[in-house]
Amino acid sequence: MGLANTIQKAAKTAFKAIGDIPLVCTYTSKGARTYTAATGAITSTDTAYTLLKILFEDYTAKEIMDSGGVILKTDQKASIPNLNLTPTPKRTDFITDSASKKWTIEDVMLDAARALWVFQVRRST
Q1: What does the CA dihedral 9, 80, 47, 35 come to, rounded to 10 degrees?
Q2: CATH classification code of 3-123
Q3: 32, 33, 78, 119: least buried by Cβ within 10 Å?
Q4: Which residues pair with 34 in a beta bridge?
Q5: What global pTM score does this model have?
Q6: Terminal C-alpha separation, the chain
Q7: How many CA atoms lie within 13 A of 84 on its CB side?
Q8: What are the respective helix, strand and coil percentages of the chain, to the nearest 5?
Q9: pLDDT tens for residues 43-94?
Q10: Closest Cα partner for 29 from 74, 80, 99, 67?
Q11: Which H or E run includes 49?
């Protein structure tokens, strides 16, 4: 077992240890989109992954200022252990938190140890 694997397992254990601070969420992975010419409808087959604990946090004023307008004051960081998420995240996916708030994924990052996915999320209207 390599160091990266040990760090990934430690991140997963840490999320369990911090108890109810992370929110229980549903992660929805958007499937391939298809267009039906006859109806003009666009459909996709989405897959929902439920009961995932995701840690939300605010961006700092410096991060917002340095982003050049890419990060809004209302955006959040959402972190989840890599080992807790089955699909490879993408910008078209979204998260629904325990208060039924929907967050769209604006950016996807994986830390250097490949232990945590960190998303820039924005509240959907």
Answers
A1: -130
A2: 2.40.10.270
A3: 32
A4: 43
A5: 0.81
A6: 44
A7: 26
A8: 20, 40, 40
A9: 888 999 998 889 999 999 999 999 999 999 999 999 999 988 999 999 989 9
A10: 80
A11: strand 47-58
Q: Strand 76-81 to strand 23-29: parallel, antiparallel, or no bridges (unpaired)?
A: unpaired
Contact at 8 Å (CB) between 122 and 75?
yes
Phi, then psi, of 39 in degrees rounded to 5: -105, -15
Question: Where along the chain do its domains lie?
Answer: 3-123
Both structure tokens of 4:
């990266």
CB 89 within 8 A of CB 109: no
Structure tokens at 65: 């200022």
Asked if 56 and 87 count as a contact pair (C-beta separation under 8 A), the reply is no
C-alpha distance from residue 58 to each of 42, 70, 71, 78, 94 (Å): 34, 15, 11, 9, 18
Residue 61 corresponds to which tokens in the numbers above?
A: 């004023």
> What are the tokens at 57?
């946090």
15, 101, 87, 68 alpha-carbon torsion, rounded to 10°: -90
Distances 121 to 36, 60, 111 between C-alpha atoms, Å: 30, 14, 16
